[in-house]
Amino acid sequence: MEPVLEARAVSKRFPGVLALDGVSLALRPGEVHALVGENGAGKSTLIKVFTGVYRPDGGELRYQGDPAVFGTPMEAQRAGISTIYQEVNLVPMMSVARNLLLGREPRGRFGVIDAAAMHGQAQRVLAGYGVATDVRRPLRTLGVGAQQMVALARAVSVDARVVIMDEPTSSLEPREVETLFGVIRRLRDAGIAVMYVSHRLDELYRVCDQVTVLRDGRVAHSGPLAEVERLRLISLMLGRDLNEVRTGGLTRFSRTRHRTTTLAPSPPELAASAGPATLEGSAVARGPATSAAGPAVSARSATPEGQTASEGPAEAARSATALGLAGSEGLVSSAGFAGASADLAASARRAAPSEIAASERPVGSEGPAVASEGPAASLEGPVASSEGSAVASERSAEPAGPATPPVHAASEGAVGVAGSGASVTGGASADPPLESDGLGSDGLGSDGLGSDGLGVVQMGVGVGAPVVEARGLTRRHVLDGVDVAIAPGEVVGLGGLLGAGRTETAKAIVGALPLDGGQVLVAGRPLRKGTKAAIRAGVSLLPEDRKAEGIIPTLSVRENIALAALPSLGTAGVVSDAKIDRVVEIFMRRLRIKAASPHQLVSELSGGNQQKVLLARWLAVRPKVLLLDEPTRGIDVGAKAEVQALIDELAEEGLGVLLISSDLEELVEGADRILVLREGAVVGELSGEEVTEERIMATIAEHPAADQPPVERKTVEQAAVERKTAEQAAVDEAAVGRAGEERGDG
Ligand SMILES: Nc1ncnc2c1ncn2[C@@H]1O[C@H](COP(=O)(O)OP(=O)(O)OP(=O)(O)O)[C@@H](O)[C@H]1O
């Protein structure tokens, strides 16, 4: 059969990278064609060439048998090529019906929109996609999956001949995935060609007939999918030998680490000793509040000489210096990061690469180490005062003094990066003792990054005592008395459907979600309100929405990675460029971050590679507790295994991890214990042998009303707000309608 859409020897070059290199691909009517490849292989670029976002530099596009040139996505769409992206690109404030039919609304005699007809039509169309909702509601009031379905219905209902789906299931529930697959089959039966891009191999095998594998911008293979078994597909994607893939396996969580962790309560006395001990570096640097010779430090990783970390005052002082934490001013606050995104952008602009490169210079002797002005401050500002360091050394020799709460004293070296507004991406403490904080066997030196382990020192709490304990987290309609405790070295998984409150629990722990009730304790001490306190206490969140909440597009890959770890990469008040380079190099290699160079702007990376950069940022910081929300979403199979191995290594070193993943296999293999959430409440806890995919599913299913996420439960106030929003939406529609048309929605 003649292809409906075809690329012939298409090339596309970006500065420094040949993203597509003579790619040929034919898409035939009624076939579902998988497009796969590692992050950065060129999939999105090819889609963008097909849909008129980019003009190819070489080669030819053919559509329905003729050469085709699409000047804009709108032109491609008008011709019958629809695209559904990961992010729903509809208008949230507009009604569901309007979003579905924008530009094609049924009109009455005088050209006026026939609202009743529009609503009826929308209701019928959406029913076919498993969405039963009041179509007059603003789109944003729907769950993510339902929004995605509206986007899909819209894309399909515009007389498409080709539908391109880019990671369409990334925010769908299992049930919605089934609906999507049903829709895909219907499209196929109707003779529509579907191009399906996904890193989830299981899905490909379920719905696709053909496959094209891209590697480094070239076609590595193309043909019927059934002829390529899974491991071979992976080896084709990664360009690795089949045997290597076979022995390496697909998930890299080592099951050996798993242990039964009995959580003990964390009385303040325990915590009191835990604080200073744990924080031998920065706690001491913070002044007389804490003892440098705390009893409970257990630095499990060896120094290059094979000795465990010294716990003495001198060591602590040295650590403090190396951390770049000078007295009480050695604080890199998250405050600047927590501002609006405009601030972020402004700060980022201020932090010109040349200034960052100049960070090797000696730092000022008196100013506050790093002002809390955002990324620029943290990058360009002096990191530590040399005088301050000396002071810190002296202080460190003193016996324990009056109490600064250890938790907070613990971590004043933290750098946090928060997203816009209240959505905080978390931050991290820069306070792990330095003797033990290397990066695996990658050979980093002892001062700042030891040669062993991943750099998280066992907390000074008794084994089994939680490092983080959330009690009764409550927020109306969102969380309902959630208790979570995470011990050092433990990976706690959160299971549940979308809207069950997993992300909200993580956000609540780092103070990014205002609560009606509940409390978070770190090492037994209540955490103060707000995100800064969590950041300082060494509790970091890798957010789910990394684009909106973390990546700073105007900075390079190197700067984005080093941002949070910066204070720990200094020695004697000087941030060592060489050390930054090494850390960046290690993470780029281990996570297979594909970039022309570390100095490439992060915004020029493929989506998956941007995610890896952000992940590298938080891993490089070596927090005490890392909350990972969908850490491998959008990340290719090769890097996924590496991410899992890293999480494992970090847990081995004493890091506490909260793992949220909709990939059940990842959850089961990675977590020691799983809390299952449902409607914002913990409805089950699985540990040991109970940790299986079946048990998680069963626990979720045991509880009725499974398809009513808490956000859907409306109160009178909520309904009023929604009514208002709907009214406002009507006012907004004219404006957003124009915007929609510009984007090609109409
Ligand atoms: N605007 C741009 N400027 C410079 N380089 C770019 C740009 N867009 C993409 N690239 C580069 O082109 C290559 C292909 O990227 P592309 O986004 O097509 O990958 P992908 O296969 O879609 O990856 P992912 O699975 O991560 O989405 C990458 O090396 C990427 O860094």
UniProtKB/TrEMBL annotation:
One of its GO terms (cellular component) is plasma membrane. This is ABC-type sugar transport system ATPase subunit. Residues 5-241, 463-704 form the ABC transporter domain. Residues 261-277, 384-394, 407-430 have a biased composition (Low complexity). It is a peripheral membrane protein. Pfam families: ABC_tran. Residues 710-726 have a biased composition (Basic and acidic residues). Its main location: membrane. SUPFAM superfamilies: P-loop containing nucleoside triphosphate hydrolases. It comes from Nonomuraea jabiensis. Residues 251-316, 355-447, 703-746 are annotated as: Disordered. Keywords: ATP-binding, Cell membrane, Membrane, Nucleotide-binding, Repeat, Sugar transport, Translocase, Transport. InterPro entries: AAA+_ATPase, ABC_carbohydrate_import_ATPase, ABC_transporter-like_ATP-bd, ABC_transporter-like_CS, P-loop_NTPase. GO terms for molecular function: ATP binding; ATP hydrolysis activity.
